[in-house]
Design brief:
Blueprint (H helix, E strand, L loop, with lengths): L1 H8 L12 E6 L2 E7 L8 H9 L7 E4 L13 H8 L3 E4 L11 H8 L3 E4 L3 H7 L1 H9 L3 E9 L3 E3 L11 H12 L3 E5 H7 L16 E5 L20 E4 L6 H5 L7 E3 L4 E2 L2 E2 L1 H10 L4 E4 L3 H9 L5 E7 L8 E2 L15 E9 L2 E8 L2
Parallel strand pairs: 3-4, 4-5, 6-14, 6-15, 8-9, 8-14, 9-10, 10-11
Antiparallel strand pairs: 1-2, 1-3, 7-16, 12-13, 15-18, 17-18
Helix pairs in contact: 3-4
Length: about 350
């Protein structure tokens, strides 16, 4: 199952709206088939593994990180494929929360006389597909807030200088985060101030750049922004409000940018829950937020952050520097945002810690 989980992690960020699943087929103690969900969500992991195993799948054991699907979509159910291949035993890490499956895949296998073992490395499997689970249960993608700060939580000096707070190793780890998320989200202020590309530029992973999502209520970013280029290779979605003039909208017409509107707007501010619900409806399961302090603060204030990816450089700027997180208005300890540590590591001279919301 550990090998299957590793396979499932390979295509995180490019299988949405489907989960990224791994499957290993074992016959007489020997691996005869391996598979993982392919880009775009199809073929599924079980189909890939069965193709590799061929006739050796008959009487074998299949290790699958998520309950095999039981519904007819663009492809037949994987549960039926496992039955037809003659699998004798199926080991499943965790059930599928999708109402179209939710126990149906297990039921198909049991009805065919296949021995079932459930819950093997379940916690790891649920964490690996936490984005898929979040979208099914909450109707929105999993939100990972990335912060790169000093030890005292500053993202820039008093003059706004921020390049670079962290070193090249930490920035490479940040690009790896981009590669395994479906989308990267920033506010228009970040685009105007920094003109970022928001792509993955790790050698060999350039094709894993996520969808770029920009929150731009007033549609004020310039058409010359770097992240509006190469839309065929790396799309950008501009989240805005209704009522823009034809002239303003026309600035983006030739760029093939996706304009998403309208949304509930309160005093000119997009309602983040509405935005995230729309992104979930469009299939996104994992969104990395790299916006500035304003967006980070708004997400934390609305209790919409599921993971914190925190890079820290070993120096201090002081209270006159720019804080990575603004005021949250939490006067009582029982109302503060709480997280638990998932992992931590050294990245060059810096540290990188990944936290999960403490439910």
């Amino acid at each position: 199952m550990s090998a299957a989980l590793g396979l499932g992690r390979r295509n995180l960020g490019c299988t949405w709206p489907n989960p990224s699943v791994g499957c290993v087929i074992v016959q007489n103690g020997r691996v005869v088939g391996r598979g993982h969900t392919q880009p775009g969500g199809r073929p599924h992991a079980e189909t890939e593994a069965l193709r590799g195993a061929g006739d050796q799948a008959r009487g074998a054991t299949a290790y699958v990180t998520l309950e095999p699907c039981a519904h007819h979509g663009k492809t037949p159910p994987c549960a039926d494929a496992l039955v037809a291949a003659g699998i004798k035993r199926c080991v499943v890490a965790t059930g599928d929360p999708d109402p179209r499956v939710a126990g149906g895949g297990i039921a198909i296998l049991k009805a065919a006389g296949i021995e079932i073992t459930e819950g093997v490395l379940e916690a790891e499997a649920r964490e690996g597909n936490a984005g898929f689970f979040t979208r099914i249960k909450l109707g929105r993608p999993l939100i990972t807030l990335k912060l790169a700060t000093t030890l005292d939580g500053r993202i820039a000096t008093v003059t706004g200088e921020s390049k670079w707070i962290t070193g090249p190793e930490a920035r490479a780890a940040g690009h790896q985060l981009r590669a395994n998320h479906d989308a990267i989200m920033v506010g228009s202020g970040t685009v105007i101030a920094d003109d970022p590309e928001l792509t993955c530029r790790l050698p060999g992973l350039e094709d894993r750049s996520p969808i770029r999502v920009v929150l731009d209520t007033r549609l004020r970013i310039p058409p010359t922004a770097k992240l509006l280029a190469n839309q065929d290779r790396c799309p950008t979605w501009l989240v805005t409000k209704a009522g823009h003039s034809a002239e303003n909208l026309g600035r983006f017409g030739h760029l093939k940018v996706t304009l998403i509107d309208p949304f509930q707007v309160d005093s000119g501010t997009l309602q983040l829950r509405t935005v995230l619900k729309e992104l979930g409806d469009r299939g996104l399961t994992r969104v990395l937020v790299e916006g500035g302090a304003a967006l980070a603060t708004s997400l934390l204030r609305d209790d919409l952050v599921d993971r914190l990816a925190w890079f820290q450089a070993p120096f201090v700027i002081g209270n006159d520097g720019m804080a990575g997180i603004g005021e949250l208005g939490r006067a009582e300890l029982d109302r503060i945002s709480r997280f638990k540590l998932l992992s931590e590591q050294r990245v060059g001279p810096d540290s990188f810690a990944l936290y999960s919301r403490a439910d």
